Design the sequence.
């Protein structure tokens, strides 16, 4: 018996009846020969981990634009924290960890430079609109590997697309990631805000701290434990009403005091203008976009707007700034 078959049998014997088994996957758009070692979701996890889009997350903004300190989160560290939270929950509930981790690692691949500021800029100037979850799915289906995509399973792509609040994944593993994403950013954005001196622990309303905990670490522990306790043995991923209400109150507090804080966001308008200028430049001079993007118009039938969005959204913060400076900032003249 192959190692993969042993792992698949272990899933059948051990995982919850509500878990998504690898052998029950709806499969890939293009059929492939099975790996002799890894089940399908483990292969998807590995493909995401090794793709170019994943590596670029290391230099994409989470909340604080181009911070000078070494300890602020980036989009990559956010992704890793979502993955760890989700795996902890999935393991406790006996769900499929490989599927959970694959969705978590891929959920933010489509984020723009400068975080949500860049996303707002592209969404406002692109006629077709722009949403990072849809771009994440497009990356794994079309853009990666020079237009071949990663050929991931349906369940992973579904979880990536539907990780935001307004939509719902079809698997419990996807639902775990969806909730873990919210838990992660509430936790680490508060931690970064305290580190930056934007907030202090005492600024958080007392009733929220009494319910969730008096430190960022304790609040994370409370929320994860609550998900596990209230989701055990049922075909649903949920929190208790008390903890969910406190978490959403903390999220609202973060929006009022961090996400829209003029001190934190003072550079976001510049970032939006930068992204808009890059988009408008390449819309006029799309021939300067790398050939691996240009072929999308001729061979894949995509519009110029979409392809320009693909290229600009793929940029890291640092690369976007470098391109902008090269295009618009005067250089010293030398003979």
Sequence:
């Amino acid at each position: 018996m192959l190692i993969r078959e042993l792992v698949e049998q272990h899933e059948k014997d051990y995982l919850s009846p509500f878990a998504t088994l690898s052998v029950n996957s709806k499969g890939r758009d293009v059929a492939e020969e099975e790996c002799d070692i890894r089940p399908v979701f483990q292969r998807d996890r590995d493909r995401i981990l090794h793709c170019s889009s994943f590596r670029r997350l290391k230099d994409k903004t989470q909340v604080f634009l181009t911070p000078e300190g070494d300890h602020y989160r980036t989009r990559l560290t956010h992704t890793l924290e979502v993955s760890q939270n989700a795996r902890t929950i999935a393991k406790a509930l006996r769900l499929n960890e490989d599927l959970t981790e694959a969705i978590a690692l891929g959920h933010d691949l489509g984020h723009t430079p400068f975080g949500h500021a860049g996303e707002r800029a592209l969404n406002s100037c692109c006629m077709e609109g722009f949403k990072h979850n849809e771009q994440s799915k497009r990356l794994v289906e079309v853009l990666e590997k020079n237009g071949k995509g990663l050929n991931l399973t349906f369940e992973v792509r579904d979880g990536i697309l539907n990780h935001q609040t307004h939509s719902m994944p079809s698997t419990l593993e996807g639902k775990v990631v969806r909730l873990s994403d919210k838990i992660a950013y509430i936790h680490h954005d508060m931690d970064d805000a305290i580190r930056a001196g934007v907030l202090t622990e005492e600024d958080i309303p007392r009733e929220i701290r009494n319910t969730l905990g008096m430190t960022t670490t304790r609040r994370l522990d409370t929320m994860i434990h609550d998900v596990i306790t209230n989701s055990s043995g049922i075909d649903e991923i949920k929190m208790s009403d008390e903890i969910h209400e406190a978490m959403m109150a903390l999220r609202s507090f973060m929006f009022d005091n961090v996400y829209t804080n003029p001190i934190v966001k003072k550079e976001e308008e510049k970032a939006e203008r930068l992204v808009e200028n890059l988009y408008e430049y390449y819309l006029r001079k799309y021939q300067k976009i790398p050939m691996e993007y240009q072929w999308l118009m001729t061979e894949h039938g995509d519009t110029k707007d979409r392809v320009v969005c693909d290229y600009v959204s793929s940029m890291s913060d640092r690369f976007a700034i470098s391109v902008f400076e090269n295009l618009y900032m005067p250089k010293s003249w030398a003979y």
Residues 3-21+38-323 form a domain with the Hypothetical protein af1432 fold (CATH 1.10.3210.10). The radius of gyration is 21 Å. The longest helix spans residues 172-195. The chain has one domain: 3-21+38-323.
